[in-house]
Design goal:
This protein has 118 residues and is mainly α. It has two domains: 3-42, no CATH class; 50-117, MYOD Basic-Helix-Loop-Helix Domain, subunit B (Irregular), CATH 4.10.280. The chain contains five helices and no strands. Residues 49-98 form the BHLH domain.
C-alpha cells in the first residue's frame, strides 16, 4: 500500500474529475481544494492588487456620497448644520412639509378663483 493512500490522499493516477467531485477524505485540505476548484469553475482569479482595488473603490464611493450630501444640503432651505445626520433630518422634515405647502397653495388658488367669479 502506498503512503499517499494510507494518509487518505489520492495517488497521482486518480483522474482529475473524480478529485473535483470530492473523492478526497474530509480533512481541511479537502475544503481548500474544493474552494480552489470552485474558483476555477466560476472564473474568479484573485489578484495581488485586489485589496488596493477595494481601497480605491471605497474611496470613490465615499467621495460620491459626500458630493450627494453637498447637493442635498444645497436643496434644503434654512439648513443650519452641515453634518450628515442634520442634513438628512432636515431634508426629511422639508420633504414632509412640501405636500402640506402644495395643498395650502392649491386651496389658496381655488379661493382666488371663487372670489374672481363673484
Amino acid at each position: 500500500m502506498e503512503i499517499s493512500s494510507i494518509r487518505g490522499l489520492p495517488d497521482m493516477t486518480t483522474p482529475p474529475d473524480s478529485i473535483s467531485q470530492g473523492t478526497l477524505l474530509g480533512n481541511h485540505n479537502n475544503y481548500v481544494f474544493k474552494a480552489c476548484q470552485e474558483a476555477k469553475k466560476t472564473g474568479k482569479r484573485y489578484k495581488h492588487s485586489q485589496p488596493q482595488d477595494h481601497i480605491i473603490a471605497e474611496r470613490k464611493r465615499r467621495e460620491k456620497l459626500s458630493q450627494r450630501f453637498i447637493a442635498l444640503s444645497a436643496l434644503v432651505p434654512g439648513l443650519q448644520k452641515t453634518d450628515k445626520a442634520s442634513v438628512l433630518g432636515d431634508a426629511i422634515k422639508y420633504l414632509k412639509q412640501l405636500p402640506e405647502k402644495v395643498k395650502a397653495l392649491e386651496e389658496e388658488q381655488i379661493m382666488k378663483e371663487i372670489l374672481e367669479l363673484c
